[in-house]
């Protein structure tokens, strides 16, 4: 049995995708080596003249978003960025181009303009062009006050952004997002569209505010004379830090040393969610222009001593988009961290059963006293396997819908007292195969969990006044549509879990009504009647 101490368990992850906040700002990050980043010499300013290049001008086919007037701000920013990349030593294959994917609501992306073979180099970025705490101009006195890699990079980026034209990174900042659809930026009303999903509890805005206010702001106030940044009000600083944090979450990489990159694409490995937290983070210009779409991943970043190299990991045909790997994320997490949703991640959808729900249903269904439930949970905790919540996956997922930890917990909870005492004496746990009693308990947990979602999709998309949310085409409508997909996905997973349990129960399943949904509807009705 896999034992994980708290936190999300990421199964068969190809990139280390950690969760949580400070941890909110934790995105598509890979394993790294602190020493490597520390060895980087401070970055010299990019001073090369822009807009003088020949092969990356608007007339070249490298870039395909020409508009008639040539005045498109999106376009001109892209061109300045391309110029800047060249100045900073980034080498790009002639087989790819930065593309305008706004029509697909995907911003910029990278597309093959010729067939590309497997394992071909797409571009390389010198380590000195990666924006890190060390390569930024953040004064040494401030750097040395900061230990946390997230907070350090947030401050370094905020510092560079605030320098405006003085910053060597200006053309890069100009192609980074100014606004976000990540959950951090959803209003309370918009978050209501996600009612039932555990994702809304994972945003962590308050803990970020606390870390910014208690750690970053005081450091800046101490070094006021040295930084323009310190002239901002506390509120403006928090806004800027959130913007930088959200950018890092969706764009930054963990900086690996070549020796640490031993795991290969497609290899099965597991990582607990905190593994990437302490690694040095960096913004890798151009590598972060690749979008991602679940299993359509066809490129990967490789770490060499003095540069990072993006290579294909499969043959790519002309016209195809190049995709990086953000990991096997449920759509709720893709939305939370990256602010978009595509069907291709649906296969990774989960719903979470909070430990509190397990406790409540156990007490109700098994008529067990609070103390009895706690004795068992305490034992589970002593064994180091108690979690705040348990993810349930698609029935078709490789390891099945229920994790071993969840199964063992349920089996433990339903044991008769004498059997539990025996188990405890032997310092053992039940086998990870659901007993019949555990299946019955699980079915009730699923019913309760399902009742936490609105009875139909329209309920979650009504705003608090009961009206359907804003008109089509608005940002609010876009967010509502994304939320509907998340909630539908989670409800599907719930239905699949219920089907699995019913199947396993077989003849032992003497339900009052035929379907899971009917039982949930009855529960809703009973609840309503009780409140009348
Ligand atoms: C690393 S950046 C990729 C470059 C980005 N498209 C841009 O224009 O800056 C990650 C962001 O790209 C967008 N993105 C990535 N993959 C996407 C996809 N398959 N569909 C839509 N948007 C996507 C999301 O906004 C995400 O937060």
Q: What labels would you give this structure?
A:
disordered N terminus; four-stranded antiparallel sheet; 2 domains; 17 helices; set domain protein methyltransferase, domain 2; binds S-adenosylmethionine; 532 residues; globular; single chain; four-stranded mixed sheet; set domain protein methyltransferase, domain 1; alpha+beta
Structure explained in plain terms:
The protein is an alpha+beta fold and 532 residues long. The protein folds into 2 domains: 9-254, set domain protein methyltransferase, domain 1; 351-531, Alpha-Beta Complex (set domain protein methyltransferase, domain 2). Helix content is 38%, strand content 10%. The chain has 17 helices and 14 strands. Strand 3 and strand 4 (108-112) form a beta hairpin.
């Amino acid at each position: 049995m896999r034992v994980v101490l708290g936190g999300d368990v990421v199964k068969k992850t190809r990139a280390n995708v950690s969760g949580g906040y400070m941890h909110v700002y934790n995105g598509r990050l890979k394993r790294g080596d602190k020493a490597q980043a520390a060895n980087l010499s401070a970055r010299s300013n990019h001073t090369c003249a822009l807009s003088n290049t020949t092969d990356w001008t608007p007339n070249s086919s490298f870039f395909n978003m020409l508009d008639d007037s040539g005045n498109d701000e999106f376009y001109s920013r892209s061109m300045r960025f391309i110029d800047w990349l060249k100045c900073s030593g980034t080498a790009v294959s002639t087989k790819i181009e930065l593309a305008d994917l706004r029509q697909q609501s995907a911003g910029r992306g990278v597309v093959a303009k010729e067939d590309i073979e497997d394992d071909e180099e797409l571009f390389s970025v010198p380590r000195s062009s990666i924006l890190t705490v060390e390569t930024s101009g953040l004064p040494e006195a401030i750097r040395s006050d900061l230990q946390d890699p997230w907070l350090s990079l947030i401050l370094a980026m905020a510092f560079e952004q605030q320098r405006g034209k003085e910053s060597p990174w200006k053309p890069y900042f100009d192609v980074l997002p100014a606004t976000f659809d990540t959950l951090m930026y959803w209003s309370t009303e918009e978050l209501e569209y996600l009612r039932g999903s555990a994702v809304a509890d994972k945003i962590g805005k308050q803990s970020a505010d606390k870390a910014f206010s208690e750690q970053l702001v005081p450091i800046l106030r101490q070094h006021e004379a040295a930084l323009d940044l310190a002239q901002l009000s506390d509120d403006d600083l928090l806004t800027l830090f959130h913007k930088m944090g959200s950018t890092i979450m969706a764009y930054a990489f963990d900086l690996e040393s070549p020796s640490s990159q031993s795991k290969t694409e497609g290899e099965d490995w597991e990582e607990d969610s905190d593994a990437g937290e302490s690694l040095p983070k960096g913004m890798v210009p151009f590598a972060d222009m690749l979008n991602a779409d679940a299993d359509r991943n066809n490129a990967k970043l490789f770490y060499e001593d003095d540069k990072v190299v993006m290579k294909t990991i499969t043959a790519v045909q002309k016209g195809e988009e190049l995709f990086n790997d953000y990991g096997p994320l449920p759509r709720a997490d893709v939305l939370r961290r990256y602010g978009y949703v595509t069907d291709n991640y649906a296969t990774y959808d989960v719903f979470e059963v909070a430990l509190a729900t397990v406790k409540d249903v156990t007490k109700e269904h098994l008529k067990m006293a609070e103390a009895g439930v706690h004795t068992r949970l305490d034992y589970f905790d002593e064994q180091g396997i108690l979690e705040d919540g348990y993810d349930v996956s698609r029935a078709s997922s490789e390891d099945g819908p229920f994790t071993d930890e969840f199964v063992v917990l349920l089996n433990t909870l339903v044991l008769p007292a004498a059997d539990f005492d025996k188990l405890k004496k032997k310092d053992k746990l039940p086998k990870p195969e659901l007993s019949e009693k555990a299946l019955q308990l699980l079915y009730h947990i699923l019913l309760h969990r399902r009742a936490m979602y609105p009875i139909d999709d329209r309920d979650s998309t009504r705003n608090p006044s009961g009206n359907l949310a804003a008109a089509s085409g608005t940002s609010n409508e876009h967010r509502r549509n994304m939320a509907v997909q998340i909630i539908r996905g989670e409800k599907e997973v719930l239905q699949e879990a219920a089907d699995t349990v019913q199947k396993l129960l077989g003849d032992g399943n003497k339900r009052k009504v035929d379907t899971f949904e009917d039982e949930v509807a009855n529960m809703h009705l009973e609840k309503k009647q009780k409140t009348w």
